[in-house]
Amino acid sequence: MLAIAQQAPVPTRVRGTIESVDGDMLTVKSRSGEAFKLHMASDLRVVGVVKAQLSDIKLGSFIGATTVPGPDGAPKAVEIHIFPEDMRGTGEGSRPYDLKPNSSMTNATVSESSVSTDGHTLLIKYKGGEKRVDISPETPIVTFVPGETSELKAGAKVIAFIKPLPDGSFETSRVSVGRDGVTPPM
User: Fold this and answer.
1) Residue 39 contacts by C-beta under 8 Å, 6 or more apart in sequence?
2) What is the pLDDT of residues 97-125, one digit of tens each?
3) pTM, whole model, 2 decimals?
4) Domain 13-49+144-178 belongs to what topology?
């Protein structure tokens, strides 16, 4: 009988804190404590992540909602990010996500918004589907602003989107960096 080796899935993003920057090499300590050395691509895009408010979400806004099933099975938001207009359509759809166990990410357009005694509910629609999302007052809400590579320094909280290179190292072409004490919640 043959044993089949199980390989750990290759990460597509690293969430953590920048430990150092040396030339085009970024070292990020992940939330789990693992250090990732990332080559910064020549076309690196840096995006700032800043705090936003529920009132910033309007009908027609394009948002990303990370949800987990609540006690009643309804999707409960664990974070919301509001995309600027130039990012409309980014990753549109709904799919499993790696932020928390059983989480999903839905990038969609807000089509309805309602308030009740239990909180706030959004109906978001994407090509091929829709999702009702419950938002509590504790749900982190952020938006994106243009960023600079100068923001990538030791101590900055980031999400780096990565891809493996043939030599086993990683490259990043997009980094979202928290500003003003914000840890990117997504």
Assistant:
1) 24, 25, 26, 165, 169, 170, 171, 172
2) 988 999 999 999 999 999 877 789 999 99
3) 0.87
4) OB fold (Dihydrolipoamide Acetyltransferase, E2P) (2.40.50)
